[in-house]
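Narrative of activities, Objective 1.

The group set out to show that a structural description can be obtained from nothing but a protein's sequence at a throughput compatible with the screening campaign. Below is one input-output pair from the validation batch, recorded exactly as produced.
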Amino acid sequence: MRFLLEVTMDDEALAKDPAGELGRILRYWGGNLRHYALAPGDGSVIHDSEYREVGRWGVEDTD
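Output recorded for this entry:
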């Protein structure tokens, strides 16, 4: 399996404070992953601090 997290860095909040905003996204999703089985097909969209969609994470089967 492979865990993928993709975030578009040219979003307004990420352009203003890339390290701070990306850190917030990683902390939030790191804590939220316990609610998922982390099996292939699991995933969700990622939002910035202003709730704009900026990416996605997902689990893929590598076979």
